[in-house]
Design a protein that fits this description.
Blueprint lengths: L6 E6 L4 H11 L4 E7 L8 H4 L20 E4 L6 H10 L3 E4 L9 H8 L10 E2 L2 H9 L3 E3 L3 H15 L7 E10 L14 H4 L4 E2 L7 H8 L10 E8 L6 E9 L5 H11 L6 E4 L14 E9 L2 E8 L3 H16 L9
Helix pairs in contact: 1-10, 5-10, 6-8
Length: 337
């Protein structure tokens, strides 16, 4: 599909992994003309010096506050988008922010899990198309979901938002494994090859910043939780992908056929959620915008649900493009299949 009148788009924070993934997707998008790539610390360098495989030879610029593109993607460290988004919105630009700055409605939760201050009105429409498609389509600025949050929310949403009588969740225990790219491009000794090769470890147990985001999307919070939730994130020595195992305890038993019917109905119009009959794997979704969901086990009110996403695509850049498509009123799969 080639559109005659293209929208212009720029990326602020284009030198990180998510920004680079966005660059590759927007270069091939039929409705978008990629304009500027901004990266303060890399200003003056060619994009191809960092990512030669993507085939882009633009020069990184330092963002000066002058907004000329129709759409801006922000792929910045947490805290920085708070300073830039208001000006972009005021100038009439569409915005997709990939950081956590605008995700949480509860200021106390934001300050506890992100460690920075923000005002109570610093909240944008949450950009998970499978849950909020209509609201996203009517928005000019979107807060893109986190990667772990995407893999976990999509695995649980039908149980909380599916409206099926008799389904009430008492507890969820999640163990999720991410590839090293999820930690970003900044050099960290503990993420070097010599530290991670042949290794796997848990981190931020019970304190990960995506915890309140998950609870919020499921209609709860960490302040007044409606169910018990334990989240153990882990990192393993592969590049991309998140693999989440969700152990769910229901208040009362529900048949497997009923659960499968619930999930199929909930995701009937979700172009990027695939329900698998067999247990999914990270390699099934690598370099795609799909989230695969498997019902791995069920007995006596207990469920084990397994999900897999590519953290850089469905967990970041791909979902950002999906949100942009909805905001522009074009098919949400454009440029992603």
């Amino acid at each position: 599909m080639e559109l005659q009148n293209k929208y212009t788009a720029s990326i602020i924070g284009a030198s990180g992994y998510s920004g680079a993934e966005l660059t590759g997707l927007l270069m091939k998008h039929p409705a978008v003309e990629l304009e500027e790539l901004y990266a303060h610390t890399q200003a003056g360098r060619h994009f191809s010096e960092l990512y030669p495989a993507i085939g882009c030879d633009r020069v990184f610029q330092a963002y000066d506050g002058q907004a000329g593109s129709d759409i801006y993607f922000l792929a910045l460290p947490h805290g920085e988008a708070l300073q830039l988004v208001p000006g972009l919105i005021a100038s009439g630009r569409k915005v997709v922010d990939l950081s956590g700055d605008y995700r949480l409605k509860n200021v106390g939760e934001h300050e506890k899990f992100y460690g920075g201050l923000k005002s109570a009105d610093a909240v944008l429409q949450y950009g998970m198309p499978e849950l909020f498609r209509s609201a996203i389509s009517g928005s000019t600025a979107i807060s893109n979901p986190g990667c772990y949050a995407t893999s976990i929310i999509l695995g649980l949403a039908p149980l909380f938002r599916g409206g099926m009588d008799g389904v009430r969740v008492e507890s969820v225990n999640v163990t999720a494994v991410s590839g090293i790219s999820g930690a970003g491009r900044s050099s960290k000794t503990e993420l070097s090859f010599s530290e991670m090769s042949g290794n796997v470890r848990a981190y931020k147990v019970g304190l990960h910043q995506h915890t309140p985001e998950i609870m919020q999307a499921l209609g709860s919070s960490t302040v007044e939780p409606g169910f018990r939730f334990v989240f153990t994130p882990m990192i393993a020595p592969y590049v991309r992908g998140i693999y989440s195992v969700l152990n769910v305890q229901l208040a009362s038993p529900v048949s497997k056929d009923s659960i499968l019917s619930l999930y199929r109905g909930f995701y009937a119009d979700a172009a990027f959620v695939r329900l698998r009959d067999t247990v999914t794997e990270v390699r099934h979704v690598a370099h795609t915008n799909f989230c695969d969901v498997s019902l791995a086990w069920q007995a006596d009110g207990s469920l084990v649900i397994v999900t897999a996403i590519d953290n850089l695509v469905k967990g970041a850049a791909g979902q950002a493009v999906q949100n942009m498509n909805l905001m522009l009123g074009i098919d949400e799969t454009t440029g992603l299949l």
